[in-house]
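User: Structure please.
Assistant: Input sequence and predicted structure:
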Amino acid sequence: MSSPPLRRDRNFVLFWILQGVSVAGDSLTTLAVPVLVLALTDSVFQMGLVTGAVGAAWLVSGVLAGSIVDRFDRRTVMVACDVARAALYALVPLAWLVEPHLWVLYVAMPLGAAAGMLYSVAYITAVPALVARDQITEANGLLSATFAVAGITGPLIAGALFAVLDPAWVIGIDAVTFGLSAVAMSFVRIRPREGAPERESPIRGFLTGARFLWENPVLRTLTLLLCGVILLTYTMDDLLIFRLKNDLHQGGGAVGVVFAIGAAGSVVAGLVVAAVRRRLGFGACWIGAYALSGVALAGAGSATVVPLLAGLVAVILFCQGIAGTCSMSLRQEITPEPLLGRVTSAFWTIHYLPGPLGAPLITFAAARAGVPAVTLALGVGLAAIALIAAFSPLRLGGFNRPAHGEAL
């Protein structure tokens, strides 16, 4: 018996809407933080340090997140994380009322990111508890497309706001969206887990999730290759914003427009990913996406006109949307529900590890060699990862929707 359309599921629609509102606010902060750091320091290296600090907080939180999410009520965890982020991000405009200090960003942004990691793990485990199993990829695609629409409107709004508001106050608007998200999430009904919750310690829970990843050849390969992807793409926003503002002498409005146009690629990816995966299979989608993304990134840093740069960003985000949604859906489909939080946190912690470690190095290289040379090298690296994947277990098709408990 087929499940009713997701657009008629009021519970999923409420979840869908509130996630879009929250992500729209996030897109404001994603652009406001590097713009704020650049205004304070005029240094791409400092931008990389803040990005690295945020990533480090993600990693620490990732070790703890899986056990917390698999033990406690997921909705309660998500509401608490939204409240925490609302309070932390509100600190930035409040501090700026007295005097701008870079250290405030080093405190509020990493702690907010830690809460964000916990929220994200809970979110991943909530989706399979909101929809039928055969609707997981479709649900993830709709959510991703909505996130991308929010990613379009967010940068456009941010660009307009930068013209009239200090970026610190733009971060304050994000704090308000988290408060709204917390209220709305309290009305979402998420199916309870079957059986008693797991009570492993955080470290043991992390190791349980990591063991599941390692014992599955596809998830093991995917995790290792994504370590390389994150290393190469983690500072992409910083590099492209620096390119726009310092090399091409564009204002904050142009930054918003470029990333808004780029986010259109994510919208398209979210709308077509379920059909593309059914037709081509996971392997072709993932490998092809990163091969094309590498070509686009190699050219983006050298683009001398804003429309071309915006178009290449759209291609990159389209590819990341296809690959990311397929990857997330695959983990949700093949991981037993009682393990999903720990597997997700282990997966994210491991493959995000190179990001904060590499962020200062890559931005330092950009400060010395220039953004065009660095993005060319990063694009070549992405293409190399796609080539490696073509000779790995990821190349195999036929595992789009394995039966419950079936090993790959």
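Residues 10-188+198-395 form a domain with the Growth Hormone; Chain: A; fold (CATH 1.20.1250.20).
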